[in-house]
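Supplementary Methods, section 5.1.

A reviewer requested that the exact input to the structure prediction be made available. We therefore reproduce it here, unchanged from the version used in the analyses.
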Amino acid sequence: MRGWAGAVTALVLALDAGAVQVVSNIVYNASAGAAGLGNLYLPEARTADTPVVLAIHGGGWSGGDRHSWAGVAEFFCRDLGFAVFNIEYRLTGSGPWPLCGNDCLAAAIYLFGDDFKKRSGLDGRKIWVCGGSAGGHLALWTGLSLPPERVAGIVSISGIGDLVPDARANPGRYAGLFGHAPTEAELAAASPLARVTAKAPPIFCSHAGVDPVVPPAASRHLVEACRAAGAPAVFYTYEQRDKGHSIWVPGSNPHRLYPDIEAAIAEFVKTFKKQTEREAK
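The structure derived from this sequence is encoded token-by-token as follows.
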């Protein structure tokens, strides 16, 4: 059964003296079981026009969960004033590509629907999408697969806009994603890069200049393609800070992005949020 009813219990939590409410375990895809759930973060000061962002965790498509992305969801909600739908999706243990991509698209379509609007009081007719690492790939894929007039912007943090350079560096993760060793044609077809057009929504990509987990070229190629097509794209780069993506403040719980990355995202959102508001008038 789709919605917030049935056996799924909605748990409402308060963070920072009521600044953020979290409604847990919203069903966006009942057929996916526990992987078809998400947590909705609601800012204290909200209206029907409060912007909505779909948040997608990373983990190489084979691991991770929405709780690992909670710090990013809180940042968007508390600091930027967004409502955030932070989702699970089916990992590669449940099936190969495009299963996880289809789940993320289903979550976006749920946000567009009447059930979400009636139950949340929010108008999700135009959404933002955010993800990191493999979740950055899924955010880019989702945002570029939807009608461009329904997407206000996409934020990819250490994401994979072009699968080809990452697959060359890390072939094992793609055998897991596809269920076999993929051809370059399969990689290209599953790359957000292939979906870039002049009508693409504004895109923000951030990446460390040296990243041992995902090559920076996986982001850079997508930004270059957007700019060549005439679509707005921002590429924020920074020095390597650790042996991973260099995105998390050490010791933060839940994981919090480094302040410079948050500031760059905030500036991107500020710029294109104003544009969306002007278009809505």
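The longest strand covers residues 20-27. These observations are discussed further in the main text.
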